[in-house]
Design a protein that fits this description.
This protein has about 130 residues and is mainly β. Helices cover about 10% and strands about 45% of the residues. The protein has one domain: Nucleic acid-binding proteins (OB fold (Dihydrolipoamide Acetyltransferase, E2P)), CATH 2.40.50. A 5-stranded mixed beta barrel has the order 1-3-5-7-6.
């Protein structure tokens, strides 16, 4: 089984590219280790997921990602083989809270509707 679950913060702005009409978003997340330190794996999202990342994510965004590991290789300019390991994004959850300026300003208790008089007897609970 090839499955990864990661929760972390974006280390930089996502890099957006287009290949054969397919949008690609590349980015790294800072993933805290259980003990000391952190890891910074590279993630790749395609098409709709890449568009979501481009539109809603920026440096510092907290994401939860379900994905799978993909390895590959290419020849660099010096004709040396370079090996890559990426996590391909299968599912993404945005974990950031809304900014304070987007939070509702009204008190949530003000939005509850009062029970009209005389309806108490009709309610299935008391």
């Amino acid at each position: 089984m090839n499955l990864t679950l990661s929760v972390g913060n974006m280390t930089d702005e996502p890099k957006i590219d287009v290949y054969n009409e397919h949008k690609k978003a590349s980015f790294a997340l800072a993933l805290n280790r259980v003990k000391d330190g952190a890891d910074f794996p590279r993630f790749v999202a395609w098409d709709n997921k890449a568009e979501l990342i481009e539109k809603y994510c920026h440096k510092g965004s907290k994401l939860a990602i379900k994905g799978h590991i993909q390895t590959g290789s290419y020849l660099n300019m010096d004709k040396k083989k370079v090996y890559t390991t990426d996590i391909i994004v299968d599912e993404i959850e945005f974990c950031d809270r809304k900014p304070k300026d987007e939070q509702p300003t009204e008190n949530p208790s003000d939005t509850w509707m009062s029970i009209p008089d005389g309806i108490q007897e009709e309610l299935p609970f008391k």
